[in-house]
Amino acid sequence: MIYKSIEEIPAKLFFKILETGEVSLLSTKKTKKNLSKIWEGILEQDLKLTGTKTQQKTLNVKKEIKKLNLHIKTVESSIYLLRQQDDQDIREILISLRYQFKDNLQEDLLKIENYVKDISVKIKSWEKKLPKQRETQQSKKTTFDQTVISYSIITELGFIDTNKITQSQFRALETTTKQKIATLNNGKKR
Questions:
Q1: 6 by DSSP, 3-state: which?
Q2: How many alpha carbons lie under 13 Å from residue 102 in its C-beta half-sphere?
Q3: I want to staple 162 with a disulfide (CB 3.0 to 4.6 A). Which of 26, 145, 151, 169 is the partner?
Q4: Other CB atoms within 10 A of residue 76 CB
Q5: What is the DSSP secondary structure assignment for residue 187, as one 8-state letter?
Q6: Whole-prediction pTM value?
Q7: Does residue 121 sit within a domain?
């Protein structure tokens, strides 16, 4: 089975993948499907529910960084191979990435290499735009189970199996809890 949406994925698994980046957990069997793309779709579904622009911006920056890192790896590998032996197929890879070749292969490779260094600088500047991850002590960290159970107490829903709650159910529970807390803070009772 491959989890493809927030209606299917257990919330506990969602947060584990979010924390570790281990997208292979989306599938219970080995697969050739692009799990990274499926994960991005799940993240976008979750962002629509949470509605936070900061998270969307962070996701977009991370996507761009991944694309650029892949670009750099491809170009660096191609340069390495071309320095060993000129190969038209490898040149075509670089041409498809919009690099040009003129008369002198070594000069062209040096120009491409310098351009890739500029991309690395761009990546570092984008990484600075990402929010800093909070450093928390393990003893102060609230577990997912504690969060779900406290939400269920606040909303008076009773016991919720934290191993079976899906991500969409978790987001609904989170929203309901926030509404209940807001209502209690305003002195109103439902």
A1: coil
A2: 6
A3: 145
A4: 13
A5: T
A6: 0.49
A7: yes
